[in-house]
Amino acid sequence: MIPEFAIMGHPNEGKSSVLSTLAEDDSVRISPHPGETVHCRSFPVTIDGQEIITFTDTPGFQNPGRMLAELQSYKETNLDKLHHFYRQFQSERDLQHDCELIQPLLRGAGIIYVADGSRPVRNVDLAEMEILRLTGKPRMAILNCKDEAQENIEQWKTEFRKHFNSSRIFNAHRATYQERIRLLEALQAIEQDWQKPLGYVVATFKKDWHNRNLRTIEIVCEMLGECLRHSLENSVARDNALQPAKDKLFQRYKKDIKKIEQKHHQRMKKLYKHNIFNYQLPPQSILHQDLFAEETWEFLGLKKSQLAIAGGAGGAALAAGIDLAAGGAALGLFTTLGGALGAFGAVYGSRNIASKIKVGIDPITTRLRIGPNTNAQFPHILLDRALIYYSHIINWAHGRRDYDTAETPKPSPGYLRGLPTSSLKKISSYFRHLQKNSDNLDKYEEEFKDILLNILNSISSAEDYENNPDH
Amino acid sequence: MKNFWTLQDSIDLDYFCSRDLAGDDLDGQDRHRRERDIFLQSQYGKEDRQPTHAECLRLWLAHHRLESIPALSSSAPGKWFEEILVSFKYLLLFAGLLLGCVSGLSYFAYTGRTPLNVFTFFSIFILPQLLLLCVFLLRSAAAKLMKQPLIRLHRTAMPLFIRFTGLVKKITKANLPCERHYNTTQLLRENGKALFNGPLFICSQLFGIAFNLGLVGVTLFKITTTDLAFGWQTTLQFGSETLYSWIHILALPWSWMPAAAASLPTLSEIEGSRIILKDGIYHLLTENLTSWWPFLLLCLLFYGLLPRLILMLYGFFLKRQGVRRFLGQRRFRAISRRMLTPLVSTQAAVPPAPVDTTAKTGKKLPQAAQKETRQKNDCVVLVPDEIFSPFTPEIMAQLLSPSGYQSVEKKRFLQNYVEDRLLLEEMSRLQLPLVVLLEAWMAPITEHLLFLQDLEKVLPADCPLCICLLGKPGSSEPYSRARPEQARLWREKIRQSCPDALIFEPQPTSHTMEGRQS
């Protein structure tokens, strides 16, 4: 039998939000008005076309007191009380929702009970928990706190201990990938028979996530390649004023780069299944700033000292070849000089976006040509922005519909500045080879991908996204 | 299943992959589904062992080859390229052999006036090959040190091969059936650079081998059929002893052979084959003049032919390495990853159409008439069980005073269903107005609304029912004002259940506003 988990609880406690986040399905109808879910809706988790487990969204309890009273009135010990209740009241209009919500339990489903931990426990909640306890099904409780109030959580936990096999705090609006996985892992503990399929689901979810990270890396590599190699041409008569033509072409270039970035961000978004609702960036995100805005260039990418180290490594690597050709006679002089020049070039040439974009008249076609951009900071900015976008995307729970705009902290630096120097050198080497489209790009790309995968993994496994909102 | 990737396989893979990416507009998920199906329908899908990347690609390739059989117009180009490469190899073999024979024959065009100069033979046929070998080794070492690809043979051999391919196409007037979908130039110039590096390196070694074989053949032929004399001469002031020691150094590679000593000219033979212009050649002895040929032949074999054979073996290594690099491309990695990653779906089935409850009942929302309740009067208050205790007489007075009521008795309700039913019975005997406190911050549920409905039914006609909507209790206050949207919702629901009930909310005070602020 396929394990089924019914998401149950009082109306408007966030059952659909929990399910939406758990199933990564933003098509789940989530309404601010209670009682919108009137039918059970199943969300099968299929792996390779085979249904492994099912989550079922249920309507909220409408008559928990009466239901409990009826169930407690059945005195026969051998009676299947739930079935009996269903048979007795299925045609009664007032109990329509309650009969509907117990249907998954009649099929043998386990229970995920969702309650809003930010409110106090009420008798109706106790009745609901008691009903679920009476069913004897494997059950787990989830505290889905809808606001910041913490004072009732202990009260809920106390009641959960009496009625459920286990309980967890799971905020459907903030749950990260890791929390989702942990919730699924916790479900394994409530019923031994379901450990295997749930273990398989967890393993597959992890694999699926890894796969998405790899695809993200590919998207990032493609975006960087397209942006770094992008160039534009426009015809211009030699006697015309060159500067307006240059300015116009530069504006077009910037527009194109933004388009490329946006296109690949959209691809990333699609990977994480944000399809139905318009994904919104957090209000305080630095991504609201234009790619070429001063603030972006101030906060993202590398610091000058880091750029110097990364640029110096590149210069030194090139000059080492000259030293080698000199058979060591130069005593590493070229390497040292090359390193210094590379460092100077990287810092000097990366002050702003326009500083290293090649602009000039092509001697063959006599057309004005702009790009590609060889600014050392530019790919770092693009990468940092992609990483920030990734962190927003993966931490935007599917059960969420908007951001709480109360907090607007200042943007903080991107991810690259925190990386060790060895990684920064490898990243910069990759960018240089990508710009040149060199023959041994593959090797540098592999190194870059490894570093990027580590970064993505650390972002995915970050414990508290909300406390670090810009990331 | 064979694990060795031929050029044909690799090119077919490139072709099918390019066609796949260009031809359809499948999105990532559809492509994933299709490729996962290929994996699952194969033998690997039934095994626990995870196939390697190459095995996945082979599976994918086999599937696409099978699929493309009915469409002859799109047959894969791998075989065609394989045939071209084989022809290219034969061409180079022939060219090398011809060049070796022609150069040998022109060198051995012996007139009998002077013996053939050993130094000339050496500088034409041995030294350039040795130098080429040294350059190759140095370049390889430098490339290794500078972390560059070992050899970039495609820079010289590839243009030749591309021209040859074009020539063959022109001569045979053969258009690749797949040309419409497949950019062969892109394969040769970009995607296939790694792929063709090894085979073209092998081709160039084949050319070298054929050249040396031709030369060795001609040398043997001439030695057998003609009377050749080898001598040496130099303007430099070095004697026979120096030459003798050089010869011994050069002969080191075959010095381990049993007859190695016999292959080298002795000191007296070297001395005896020295040509001095002013002395003429008549005093030179035949045994001295013929003593050089075994040494020269072995030089050709060990410095010409053998390194080429070794490099050809290295070419096979390069070929494998090239295939590995070729298969390691991002687009191919994506294929195997899609094949190996299980398809996860957590999407729900299409939801059933919403039930129009108003259509069934044929009722519309009743518009309850609000009544003013400003008349001061005694009343009984029903207080939810959970907040019963905090509602002291003072708080109750504070809550009810704006409505004009004064609580004379408070009763507990919402304890449980049975108690509430008993309470209804009790309420039927009530003689005072009834005020029901409701926690409007909770979602309205049928049970509560039915209770209110039943309450309204059982209450005597002269006992009005009033409902006070409360907001969430604070840490120090038992109630607050409900949020507008919560109050609105409750009002709507209450109007449906008990249209005659009077509804009011606490007056806004400093503490009752907490609920709204939160």
Characterization of this structure:
The complex is a heterodimer of chains A (471) and B (518). Chain A is an alpha/beta fold. Helix content of chain A is 50%, strand content 11%. Chain A has 16 helices and nine strands. In chain A, the strands form two sheets. A six-stranded mixed beta sheet of chain A has the order 2-3-1-4-5-6, sandwiched between helices. A three-stranded antiparallel beta sheet of chain A has the order 7-9-8. In chain A, helix 6 links the parallel strand 4 and strand 5 (139-143). In chain A, helix 9 (195-229) packs across helix 16 and helix 12 (304-325) packs antiparallel against helix 13 (333-348). In chain A, 44% of the residues are buried. Chain B has 518 residues and is of the alpha/beta class. Chain B contains 20 helices and nine strands. Chain B has helices at 7-23, 28-41, 53-68, 78-107, 118-145, 154-172, 184-191, 193-225, 240-250, 260-263, 267-272, 286-289, 293-327, 330-340, 357-361, 393-400, 417-427, 446-458, 484-497, 514-517, and strands at residues 116-117, 230-231, 344-345, 377-384, 405-413, 434-439, 465-471, 480-481, 502-504. In chain B, the strands form two sheets. In chain B, strands 4, 5, 6, 7, 8 and 9 form a six-stranded mixed beta sheet that branches. The longest helix of chain B has 35 residues, at 293-327. The two termini of chain B are 68 Å apart. The chains are: A alpha/beta (471), B alpha/beta (518). Chains A and B meet through strand 2, helix 2, helix 6, helix 9 and helix 12 of A and helix 2, helix 14, strand 3, helix 17 and helix 18 of B. Strand 2 of chain A pairs antiparallel with strand 3 of chain B, so a sheet runs across the interface.
